[in-house]
């Protein structure tokens, strides 16, 4: 920070910037960790909670935002987070880049697994260099199976792979 011209640190409030976060689930705790880590290096930021981030995300009304993505097995799913067509939806960073749009289109146009792998490998490297968002943690989804384990699946079609309730059945 000193080399960048901030020898006494930086307070984002001086620039009208805050750290927005969802107040549901674990997001607020993640924001608190980010705030603490930044404070350790001289960056002060206020956390502002929001129970529904859709308006802020779709309008781009934030400087920093802590929210989550659910990733699928095929990388083509990630176009929802990075392509111009999805700005204001899942592309909360409002990232717009023709190379990214074209690379996802190329990946969608082929069924050859090796060709898709090469396209997405190059695209991933490019996205890391562009840094439209920063992954700060990954929540593990634990999968268990036992004939006596009973689960009720989530009825939300966007998150069917999350279970709603579980218990062990008696033999």
Keywords:
single chain, 171 residues, alpha/beta, 3-stranded parallel β-sheet, two-stranded parallel ribbon, 5 helices, 7 strands, 32% helix
Architecture overview:
32% of the residues lie in helices and 15% in strands. With 171 residues, it is α/β, with parallel strands linked by helices. The strands form three sheets. It has a three-stranded parallel sheet, with helices on one face. The protein has a two-stranded parallel ribbon with strand order 1-3. Strands 6-7 form a two-stranded antiparallel sheet. α4 (98-109) packs antiparallel against α5. The model has no long low-confidence stretch (mean pLDDT 80).
Q: What characteristic shape results from the CA principal axes?
A: globular
Radius of gyration equals 20 Å
Contiguous low-pLDDT stretches (5 residues minimum) are none
| SSE arrangement, N to C | EEHEEHEHHHEE
Mean pLDDT: 80
Strand content: 15-25%
Strand order of the largest sheet: 4-2-5
Span from first to last CA? 62 Å
Counted by DSSP, the helix tally is 5
